[in-house]
């Protein structure tokens, strides 16, 4: 069981908007620690997509956005494209686990 | 542009010690306020943080693996290493090294990953 909870899968048609949730607890997201998101294309290493809840690294399209509220966070993808089909992971810090970085279980996005 | 590359045996026998090295290029491992982490991913499953090291030698480990993990750094070679002892089939995974932006708790650069299989 992952410390952060994500839906196993989401799907959407090209051009649509999808959101992926990430639910934590009072020792991680709810404690105020930032949430970060990674995109993992099939057969490749994860890539940083969003850091600090809502910031995009250089080169990440503005179709990707992140938000955080209370003990949860969300990743939104607008204008879905076939190339967005990937697994998405949220990540945060957990104060109850000795400096541990913790991940969500991952969400597989299918572009219909 | 920072690049990371994992290396080490792809096959380890049960009960033995898994050893991997991550070589950092495109910048000094000692520059900036960065930690250096190991993360693993069993086939078809999610990501698990193993631990991290600062160039001072300070380490943090995942409590679930702490008794079996040692992470070390060699600044002269711009490398850091992972040792995981008493491995079982459950340790079979792709192992990634990553740069850990310590103050902000995220990973901005990742290696391509290396598959380690535990089998006799």
Describe this structure in words.
The complex is a heterodimer of chains A (112) and B (120). Chain A is mostly beta strands and 112 residues long. Chain A has no helices and nine strands. In chain A, a hairpin with a 5-residue loop joins strand 7 and strand 8. Chain B is mainly beta. In chain B, a hairpin with a 4-residue loop joins strand 9 (93-101) and strand 10. Chain B is globular. The mean pLDDT of chain B is 95. The interface between A and B is medium-sized, with 27 and 23 residues.
What are its keywords?
heterodimer, A: 112 residues, mainly beta, six-stranded mixed β-sheet, three-stranded antiparallel β-sheet, 0% helix, B: 120 residues, seven-stranded mixed β-sheet, four-stranded antiparallel β-sheet
Can you summarize the main beta sheet of chain A? 6 strands, mixed
Structural class of chain B: mainly beta
User: Strand-residue fraction of chain A?
Assistant: 35-45%
Overall average pLDDT of chain B: 95
Tally of helical runs of chain B: 0
Unreliable parts of chain A = none
Task: Indicate the multimeric state.
Answer: heterodimer
Mean pLDDT of chain A: 95
CA-based gyration radius of chain A: 13 Å
**Beta-strand proportion of chain B:** over 45%
* Share of helix of chain B, binned: under 10%
